[in-house]
Protein backbone atom coordinates (compact mmCIF):
# COMPACT_ATOMS: atom_id res chain seq x y z
CA UNK A 1 0.00 0.00 0.00
CA UNK A 2 2.79 2.43 0.89
CA UNK A 3 4.70 1.73 -2.33
CA UNK A 4 1.52 2.21 -4.40
CA UNK A 5 0.89 5.57 -2.73
CA UNK A 6 4.52 6.53 -3.23
CA UNK A 7 4.33 5.66 -6.95
CA UNK A 8 1.11 7.63 -7.29
CA UNK A 9 2.70 10.71 -5.70
CA UNK A 10 5.80 10.43 -7.91
CA UNK A 11 3.64 10.07 -11.02
CA UNK A 12 1.68 13.18 -10.09
CA UNK A 13 4.90 15.15 -9.53
CA UNK A 14 6.23 14.00 -12.93
CA UNK A 15 3.05 15.12 -14.68
CA UNK A 16 3.15 18.51 -13.00
CA UNK A 17 6.86 18.90 -13.74
CA UNK A 18 6.29 18.44 -17.48
CA UNK A 19 2.84 20.03 -17.77
CA UNK A 20 3.82 23.59 -16.79
CA UNK A 21 6.79 23.90 -19.21
CA UNK A 22 4.64 22.44 -22.00
CA UNK A 23 1.93 25.05 -21.38
CA UNK A 24 4.49 27.87 -21.24
CA UNK A 25 6.09 26.73 -24.50
CA UNK A 26 2.71 26.56 -26.20
CA UNK A 27 1.81 30.05 -24.99
CA UNK A 28 5.12 31.44 -26.27
CA UNK A 29 4.63 29.85 -29.68
CA UNK A 30 1.09 31.15 -30.01
CA UNK A 31 2.14 34.64 -28.97
CA UNK A 32 4.95 34.63 -31.52
CA UNK A 33 2.61 33.61 -34.30
CA UNK A 34 0.22 36.47 -33.62
CA UNK A 35 2.77 39.28 -33.61
CA UNK A 36 3.58 40.00 -37.25
CA UNK A 37 5.87 42.76 -38.34
CA UNK A 38 6.28 44.36 -41.75
CA UNK A 39 9.23 45.98 -43.49
CA UNK A 40 8.22 49.17 -45.27
CA UNK A 41 10.78 50.62 -47.69
CA UNK A 42 10.44 54.06 -49.23
CA UNK A 43 11.72 55.37 -52.56
CA UNK A 44 14.15 57.61 -50.63
CA UNK A 45 15.80 54.50 -49.13
CA UNK A 46 14.39 54.71 -45.63
CA UNK A 47 13.15 51.48 -44.02
CA UNK A 48 10.54 51.22 -41.27
CA UNK A 49 9.59 48.15 -39.27
CA UNK A 50 5.86 48.20 -38.60
CA UNK A 51 4.40 46.41 -35.59
CA UNK A 52 1.35 44.85 -37.19
CA UNK A 53 -0.06 45.39 -40.65
CA UNK A 54 -0.06 48.92 -42.09
CA UNK A 55 -3.56 50.34 -42.62
CA UNK A 56 -4.35 51.98 -45.95
CA UNK A 57 -6.61 55.06 -45.95
CA UNK A 58 -8.29 55.52 -49.33
CA UNK A 59 -9.32 59.15 -48.70
CA UNK A 60 -5.83 60.43 -47.90
CA UNK A 61 -3.99 57.81 -50.03
CA UNK A 62 -1.69 57.02 -47.07
CA UNK A 63 -0.55 54.08 -44.97
CA UNK A 64 -0.56 54.36 -41.18
CA UNK A 65 1.37 52.04 -38.86
CA UNK A 66 3.19 51.87 -35.53
CA UNK A 67 6.99 51.72 -35.80
CA UNK A 68 9.46 49.88 -33.55
CA UNK A 69 9.59 52.78 -31.05
CA UNK A 70 5.80 52.81 -30.69
CA UNK A 71 5.30 56.00 -32.74
CA UNK A 72 2.46 56.30 -35.24
CA UNK A 73 3.81 56.88 -38.75
CA UNK A 74 1.80 58.08 -41.75
CA UNK A 75 3.35 57.76 -45.21
CA UNK A 76 1.91 58.72 -48.58
CA UNK A 77 1.31 55.66 -50.78
CA UNK A 78 3.40 57.16 -53.62
CA UNK A 79 6.44 57.36 -51.32
CA UNK A 80 6.38 53.60 -50.55
CA UNK A 81 8.44 51.26 -52.70
CA UNK A 82 7.77 47.96 -50.88
CA UNK A 83 5.73 46.51 -48.00
CA UNK A 84 6.82 43.01 -47.00
CA UNK A 85 5.80 40.77 -44.09
CA UNK A 86 8.80 39.74 -41.99
TrEMBL record:
**InterPro entries (alphabetical):** LSM_dom_sf, YgdI/YgdR-like, YgdI/YgdR-like_SH3-like
Which positions are tagged coiled coil? Answer: none
Database matches in SUPFAM superfamilies = Sm-like ribonucleoproteins
Question: Would I find Nuclease among this entry's keywords?
Answer: no
Asked whether the UniProt record includes Nucleotide-binding among its keywords, one would answer no
- Pfam families per UniProt: DUF903 (PF06004)
What keywords tag this UniProt record?
Answer: Cell membrane, Lipoprotein, Membrane, Palmitate, Signal
Annotated Lipoprotein YgdI/YgdR-like SH3-like domain residues: 38-85
Against NCBIfam families, the record matches this protein to:
lipo_YgdI_YgdR (NF033216)
PANTHER family on file: POT FAMILY PEPTIDE TRANSPORT PROTEIN, POT FAMILY PEPTIDE TRANSPORT PROTEIN-RELATED
**Name by which UniProt lists this protein:** Lipoprotein YgdI/YgdR-like SH3-like domain-containing protein
